[in-house]
Amino acid sequence: MTLRPSTILLLVLLLPLVYTDAFLQSSPTKAYNLRYQLRNSIHQSSSTSTSSLRRPTHLFAENKKASVKLSSPQIPTTLTPTTLVDYILSLVTSDLSSIVLGSIGILLALTNRLTSIDLEATNIASNQAIDMGTQSRMDLLAVFSAGAVLLNGVSKLDITSVTAETVELEGTILDRVEYVNFDDGIELNRNLIDWALDSVLQSSPARSAVLLVCLNENEKKWNISALKGVVPFDSTLRQAVPDGVSTPILDRFLKEGQGKKETYLPTLQALPGRTEITYLPGNTQEVLMLPIDMEDSRYCKGALVLGSDTAKSFTPRDVAWCQVIATRLGDLCNAS
């Protein structure tokens, strides 16, 4: 069995790249969980007292244009054998290098295959037929290896899709938190609510924030407790959910096994369920509903409802941040 030197060289170069990149991707330095980091930052800013809770600025910059970013490792400041090896491995397994090497590998495999075929041959000996079959299998293995490297590079690209158009929400802007239904014997720490609503409005795409509570799980009656941001012009819609309006989306938080999962409606205007969200402006583009565990308080359940003026603008990082704030709000309300 004879193999072409170009095929052997291609396999030697590409196969280690696949295993090396897989090893680097499994490194513990890349295994941090985003929610764990955000939870720690919230805990540090709220562990002293509720009056000293810090309100974060916008954490994630908005990008209205689609873009593709290529990553490249930074050159180490101090050259040691360890840092040099790490830099070389990071450079070789970066998305740009993977795309270039994968493309070159596929081209070499194609060139090797085309040059190994004798188009003018009329008769093929048995030993030549065996060699051609072996060569075909090696060429396929080379193509699969190069394709894996190319696919790895494409999968690691930082692609930002274009966002939807931003609309002007139809409503009035509340610079301060407006509290509703606080004279019924149920007490909440207003400093906590101020901090939570300010945080989600300043650090996420949300433009409206509403806190609702459910007093009785059987009746499934949700009461509006606090609002901030852009709210409806009609003051009655800011006071309570109108009678006769069902709330099946919010009621999911009351069901067994579903009370811990958020509800995200990225294109609200295309959904018939938007009619139940009367406490947000009528042209709200998307809604994120976050459950708040209040079992240790006088409430049955709470919900933090966020509305935005741009469809599909909440990223997974935004959702994780808002989840941490809602969880922290529930913990502090139960402890107060």
Describe the structure.
This protein has 336 residues and is of the alpha+beta class. Helix content is 41%, strand content 15%. The protein has a 6-stranded antiparallel sheet with strand order 3-5-4-8-7-6, with helices on one face. Helix 2 (34-46) packs parallel to helix 9 and helix 4 packs antiparallel against helix 5 (126-155). The longest helix is centred in the middle third of the chain and has 30 residues, at 126-155.
| Helical stretch tally | 9
Largest sheet entry? 6 strands, antiparallel
The run of helices and strands is: HHEHHHEEHEEHHEEEH
Mean pLDDT: 76
Q: What oligomeric state is this? A: single chain
Brief summary:
The protein has 336 residues and is of the alpha+beta class.
What are its keywords?
elongated; alpha+beta; two-stranded antiparallel sheet; 336 residues; 8 strands; 9 helices
Write the topology of this structure:
Blueprint: H1 5-25, H2 34-46, E1 67-69, H3 81-92, H4 95-115, H5 126-155, E2 158-160, E3 172-179, H6 190-202, E4 206-214, E5 222-231, H7 235-239, H8 248-251, E6 263-265, E7 286-292, E8 301-308, H9 316-335
Antiparallel strand pairs: 1-2, 3-5, 4-5, 4-8, 6-7, 7-8
Helix pairs in contact: 1-4, 1-5, 2-9, 4-5, 6-9
